[in-house]
Amino acid sequence: MIGTEGSNATATVFILVGFPGLGAAQFWLAFPLCFLLLLAVLGNCIIVYIVKVERSLHEPMYLFLCMLAAIDTLISLATMPKMIAIFWFKSTSIAFDACLVQMFCIHSLSGMESTLLVAMAFDRYVAICYPLRHASILTVPRIAKIGLVAIIRGAALMAPLLSIKRFPFCRSNVLSHSYCLHQDMMKLACGDIKFNIIYGLIVIIFAIGVDSLLISFSYFFILKAALSLTHEARLKALGTCVSHICAVFLFYVPFIGLSMVHRFSKTHGSHVHVIMANVHLLVPPVLNPLVYGVKTKQIRLRIGRAFGRVTP
């Protein structure tokens, strides 16, 4: 609902959309979406459970993976149930405060995931470049502190985005996605949104941008160290990085793509916006546990034992 008191008009609810132009076909889209939700939650919960109960997996790489899986589960639960409700029950309205909470959860959890991907890159760097010091550098208490830093950093970086609450929304209350994003809400605000634009750009450059650079530098030194090893040792060392590299691409490529589309595209609610937004949030939680489950031998073996057989 939009108020009608001139410049003081504001939105009490927002309207979320699914895939514009598909009409009744959106009902059927909810079935694969529901399957993806189950796959994401089940897959990531299995990763968390296996790392928790298997003492041999209480190592830095797997503990960070456990944290990553927990964050992916929360992202899925924060977005997909409402999307399913939109497609199946046409429940397109969301209260303004609920939209703010969802927006903060999405952005802060994404910031936490970015921090953890940096920590995982650092873990691979230490393990390959300084293998004898790996256990003494990345101790369990330090890993726990890194996880706490990821939570605080993600929440603190995104907290200023909640300042959008002070703006009136007198143009429209129809958002262009199936969930609430700061970029999307900001375009509907009536008022001086320069702070939100500048701060959003600062977060992209000095948080996500710096994180991606740190990961790139880590892999530069990893490759440099790997080249000095024998062929067999080099393949083994780099093989431990494959899953993490996949997770990095699954997170950063859609994230940066969505940010660029929102910042430079002039068509609000275009199909490019919608596709990029859904890929950004749906793909990493679904594929990360599959990638780590396939590429990590210890996890494959544990899953194999759980189902009564051992996967070689």
From TrEMBL:
Keyword Endoplasmic reticulum: no
Membrane topology: Multi-pass membrane protein
InterPro entries the UniProt entry points to: GPCR_Rhodpsn (IPR000276), GPCR_Rhodpsn_7TM (IPR017452), Olfact_rcpt (IPR000725), OR51/52/56-like (IPR050402)
Subcellular location: Cell membrane; Membrane
Record family assignment: Belongs to the G-protein coupled receptor 1 family.
Residue ranges crossing the lipid bilayer per the database entry: 27-50, 62-89, 101-122, 143-164, 197-223, 235-255, 275-294
Keywords: Cell membrane, G-protein coupled receptor, Membrane, Olfaction, Receptor, Sensory transduction, Transducer, Transmembrane, Transmembrane helix
Main location: membrane
Record keyword Lipid metabolism present: no
Residue ranges that the Swiss-Prot or TrEMBL entry lists as coiled coil: none
Domain G-protein coupled receptors family 1 profile per the UniProt entry, residue ranges: 43-292
Stated name of the protein: Olfactory receptor
